[in-house]
Structure formats: structure tokens, C-alpha cells
Amino acid sequence: MRNRMQDKVVIVTGGSSGLGRATAELMIAEGARVVIVDIDSQKGNGVAAEIGAEFIRVDVGQRSEVDKLVDDVVTRFGSLDVMCNNAGAIAMVPLVDTTDAEFDRMVAVNLGGVFYGTRAAARVMTKQGHGVIVNTASNGGSSPSEGMAVYCGTKAAVVAMSKSSAIELAPKGVRVNTISPGTMLTGMVPDVEGIVDVLDKLQPVGYAAQPSEMAAGILYLASDDAAYVTGHDLVVDGGATAGRAAVGV
């Protein structure tokens, strides 16, 4: 490790599992002081103790909770260097069967949570004169899948909102980027026999990614290695959205 995040104060939402946990672990390995955020207190506290992070329970879909989170972190650590708005909600269901509750939750978490987190972090970072915001989108935002209309719609919105924010915040020393992961083996993968084999075959590189492979992209965007990168959507999907492979060749 290169200590690329030495003494940086980092918040990772959705940090108790999947990409969030992998990101928190990598940030810690690179020297960061990490606060993981999740709605599940029991799991969050357990993961924090295991990886050497701190835990704060927050429902990112609630504006007041996100504002308090950022205020509490800054009060405790004196600054906020990196905000990773990673928490997400998903429902793989046909459009006509999508319930209002499913719609409301995905919009609240996937879009609202990113907006609240970006805004709260920006208020602090613009005063500091520096900071990095990394928002988790999805390659489904640019290459949607059947049965995921609301999910893909929220992720497309995250990319556009982040780019607009990047333009606004760049003169104030704050970078904003998104990462758009492809298929990875997390708790969001359906518990269906043989699904991993199917997912592996859908990826041009031949396998579905581990969360740590996506976390490497977040680390890059958060680090000084990407000091001149803002308003960018980093797609990390093993070539899944690059195009279509030849058939029958």
C-alpha cells in the first residue's frame, strides 16, 4: 500500500457490506480514518469493530440524519476529506408490478441519499477549500436492464447530478465524480441456483467482479492520483457496456 489516504477523514455510506465495506477496508489500509454508515446498527457496529472503522447509524434517505452525520464527523475529527455516497436500494421487478413503496425507497436512498450527502459534504468542503465526493452510480444508468426501470433511472440521475455538482464546486477546490460498477458478487445478487455462472458468462472478462475490484476505482477517484479528475463517471464493469460480442463467430 502507498498510504494514499494517510490521515484523511472518510465517510462511506452503506459501509457494512458489499462495495461499501470493501471501500472502507481499502481506505483504512491506505491510512484513512473511516466512518462507516448504515441503517443496520448491529451489522454496522460489528463490521466497524472488525475492520478498525467507526460506525454511525443513519438512514441516508432522511435529510436531517445525513446533515447530522456530517456535522458530527466534522465536530469529532475537525474536517471531512472524502464523502463516499455509496448506500443503495434495489428492486428487480417489472415496471407494472413496481409498488409505490419500492419506488419511494429507491428514489429516497439512491438519489435522495446521494443528494443529501453531496450537499452536506459540499457545505463543509467549500469552507475548507478542499475535498472529494465520490458517488456510486451503476453501469445500469447508461445501459439499463429489463425489470430495473426505477433503479436504473435513479443511477442515471446520480451521474447527471454529480457532473453538474462537479462544475459548480470545481472553482472551490472540491472534486465530484461517480463510479459506475458493473456486476459484482454482493448481497444484491439474487439467491438463485447457477446465477453466478450466468453472470460470469455475461462479462467480457469472463467473471463477475469482487467488491474489492470496484473499491479500487473509488480509491483512485478519492486520492490525489485523480487530482485533475472531476465530473467524470468511471465505469468499472469488465467491458460489459463496451459493446456486444460477435455471435456465432
From TrEMBL:
Keyword Oxidoreductase: yes
CDD domains recorded: SDR_c
Entry superkingdom: Bacteria
Alphabetized UniProt keyword annotations: Oxidoreductase
InterPro entries linked: NAD(P)-bd_dom_sf, SDR_fam
Family from the record: Belongs to the short-chain dehydrogenases/reductases (SDR) family.
PANTHER family: 3-OXOACYL-(ACYL-CARRIER-PROTEIN) REDUCTASE (AFU_ORTHOLOGUE AFUA_6G11210), SHORT-CHAIN DEHYDROGENASE_REDUCTASE FAMILY PROTEIN
Protein name as annotated: SDR family oxidoreductase
Taxonomic source organism: Gordonia westfalica
